[in-house]
Amino acid sequence: MDTLAHLKHLYGFNDWANRIIVRQARSTGSARVLAYLAHVLITEKEYYERLFGKDSTGFNFWPEAGVDDCASLAKENNERFLKLLEGFDDEGLGQRVSYKTSQGVEFENSFREILTHVLFHSMNHRGQILTILREEGFEPPAIDYIVYERTR
C-alpha cells in the first residue's frame, strides 16, 4: 500500500473513531468528554486550513461546542480530508506549506507531515477521552485501530 492509500485508510479509521466518540458524548452527557472531543475536531479543521496557509494566530483550540456541533464538524472534517486526499498523488504529499501557529510562530511542513500529525493528535486526545470515561464510571468504547480493521 502506498503512502497515499495508507493515509486514506487511516483517515477512514479516524472518522470511524470520531463518530464513536460523538455517540459516546451524546449518551453520557459528559462535559469533559465533550470538551476534548470539540478540541479534537476543531484542531482537525484548523490543520486542514493550515494546509492552505491559514494564519492561526490567536486561534482558540478549546472552544465550547455542543454534541450536534461536534457531529457536524466530524462529518465535515472527514469529507474535506478525503476530498483533499483524492486530489493527491504520493509526490504531491511532499509539497510544503507555510502557516502560523496560534502563538503567531511561522512554520513550514509537508502535507504528509501535517496530515500524519492530525491523525496522531486526534488519537492522543481520544485516548484521554477514554480515560475520562473510565474516571466518570462509564465503559469506554473499543476504538483501537485493530478493532476498526476487524469490523471492516
Query: Beta fraction of the residues?
Result: 5-15%
Uncertain regions spanning at least 5 consecutive residues: none
The CATH superfamily is identified as dinb family like domain
Q: What form results from the Cα inertia axes?
A: globular
Number of β-strand runs:
2
Order of strands, main sheet, comes to: 1-2
Structural classification: mainly alpha
| Broad CATH class | Mainly Alpha
Named at the architecture level, the CATH assignment is Up-down Bundle
List keywords for this structure.
152 residues, mainly alpha, two-stranded antiparallel ribbon, 5 helices
What would you say this structure looks like, in words?
With 152 residues, the protein is mainly alpha-helical. The protein has one domain (3-151): Four Helix Bundle (Hemerythrin (Met), subunit A) (Up-down Bundle), CATH 1.20.120.450. It contains 5 helices and 2 strands, in the order H-H-H-E-E-H-H. The protein has helices at residues 3-28, 31-50, 67-86, 111-135, 145-151; strands at residues 96-100, 106-110. The chain has a two-stranded antiparallel sheet. Helix 1 (3-28) packs antiparallel against helix 3 (67-86). The radius of gyration is 16 Å and the shape is globular. The protein starts with a helix and ends with a helix.
